[in-house]
Design a protein that fits this description.
Blueprint lengths: L2 H8 L5 H9 L11 H9 L3 E4 L2 E4 L1 H10 L2
Antiparallel strand pairs: 1-2
Helix pairs in contact: 2-3
Length: 70
């Protein structure tokens, strides 16, 4: 199994805007330039979660970002 295949099997397929959206979220983001659809997709993947009217990156989201850029 090559490296790209291993990475693909661990990480869900995401569009560039979805990755950019995940990267741009700070610990407590309340205003977001991307539409709600992107946030909902990231939430379904377990990468972000709403918390007190703000969005935050989950541990799973931080792991995905770390693995993508490692």
């Amino acid at each position: 199994m090559d490296t790209q295949h291993a990475f693909s099997s661990l990480m869900p397929l995401m569009t560039d805007p979805e990755w950019i959206a995940l990267e741009s979220l700070e610990e407590e983001t309340s205003h977001f330039i991307f539409g709600d659809t992107v946030l909902l997709t990231l939430r379904e993947l377990g990468f972000v979660e709403p918390q007190g009217g703000r969005w935050r990156v989950t541990e799973h989201g931080y792991k995905a970002l770390h693995e993508r850029f490692s």
